[in-house]
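Re: weekly structure request thread

Next one in the queue (160 aa):
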Amino acid sequence: MIGFFGAIQIFFAVAMSIASYVLSAVALYSIGKNNGVRYPWLAFVPFAQYYVIGSICEEYRIFGVNIKPLWLILPLLLLLQSAAALIPSYILFLPGLVIGIFMALIMHKFFYMFEPSRAFVLALLCLFGRLTTGLALFVIRDMRLQMSQGAYPYPFGERR
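Done, posted below.
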């Protein structure tokens, strides 16, 4: 039987999860609507939230490889990472870590397109969980894109 304090912990965890989801969804919907994303309402669908981010970023170049379309790849990677986390295995740790690093790089690009001077700090906040990601997105919810996706300085050198 769950004790009183256990019930309080469960209630607090559920309340924080709902708050972070709503904060992220509202912020992503506003960002998508203000910046011409085709289906901004997908911000309210749990795994499809990253459609808005992928639609704005469009592509990502890493080590000379051009990865696109991000509007499709990001939700699928998030779904894959969540599914891998359900399986207790040390083998799936590495792919989950690689996906997490890639998502952090994408978030940096996303924030850079809106607020270049604070992009690193906002992307760093995303590493601390869903609530801080929602707060970072909420900070830029009313901003318009300051640059196109092609103007982003990719962090890794291009192979020639």
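Residues 5 and 11 are 10 Å apart (CA to CA). The chain is about 60% helix and 5% strand.
Next request, please.
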